[in-house]
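Sequence decides. Consider this:

===
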Amino acid sequence: MPALYIGHGAPMLLEDALWTSQLRSIAADIPRPKAILMVSAHWESEPITLSATGAHTPLVYDFSGFDRKFYEMTYNSPDATALASLVASLMPDTEPIHSSNRGLDHGAWVPLRVMYPDADIPVLQMSMPTEDPVKLMELGRRLAPLREQGVLVVGSGFMTHGLRYLREWSPDAQAPGWSSDFDMWAAEALARGDVDTLSKFKELAPGMPYAHPTVEHFTPLFVALGAGTTADAAPKTLIDGYFMGLSKRSILVA
């Protein structure tokens, strides 16, 4: 089973024909997972915490200003208790996993509604405990054995996320220079498998800090890279291009 880093988008992307077709293609082209572990930009919490595990896990509607229908959507996934136990078994004794009653936030359920619309695969969300790329890659390495168990590990964010700096709020808006520059820099580093350069994105990447005034939408990438068979192997780009000028580049890590 591969690991993924995907651009999850706002709920309105559920109505974007191109983006949804691209996500459906990803799901169709990879093995069907037995379970899914999501690490979303929208849940930063230390120590590492897992979402509710019961069937029909509730959703977190962590957005505002959208059509009412988005607040009425559900994603009734099966019980994920077994996956939670498996994840906990991979953590060292010095870093025990905490549990919670938190539901799945939109970084998890929006793409999953597209990729696996039947909601028939157990889903668990893990909090992102740090923004340190090195520590997140180590977390990914701990999670790597899940792949042998048929678990899809997904880092969910957005390759550029400078929402406050957008001037044109249109799906087909031209990408600002800071967005395209950062995207191309990241794409080139990924193509080289250059995780050391990627981990220094705050200092080295063009377009900073506009591309990521806060970094939580980029850092899930490092969990996915760490979960790869070889962290410095070049991943495969599955989606590129822009939405409202922001890069939705998504990758597969073998």
User: Anything to note?
Assistant: The domain at 3-253 is CATH 3.40.830.10 (Protocatechuate 4,5-dioxygenase; Chain B).
